[in-house]
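Bumping with the actual sequence this time:
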Amino acid sequence: MALYEARVLLDSRHLSAVQVIEEKFDADTGETLSKIIYRARKGDDRKPKAKTPAASSDEKIKAPMPPKKAVDEQAGFIKYVVIMVLSVGAIALAGIVGLVFLIEHFG
């Protein structure tokens, strides 16, 4: 899909070159491996290659990872919000059911 989009973008009049980069992220180490898999420029007479040798463009990049404590806090906050929304919804539903019962019972 990315290669198709790159070719479409290259056909537009706003860009003169495109490049598609494949990235692989290792969650355990926090490293990202980047590799250029497609590069094309307007005006090149030669046919663009789908894959270019990119041995020199392979590089490990240390991706900034949020501290584990921040991730745990964010997950805890999301759980708290979900519980609050469900609790308020349950209370509102109980109130509606109670009103319907009262209306039917007392007319």
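The tokens above came from a reply further down the thread. Residues 31 and 63 are 6 Å apart (CA to CA).
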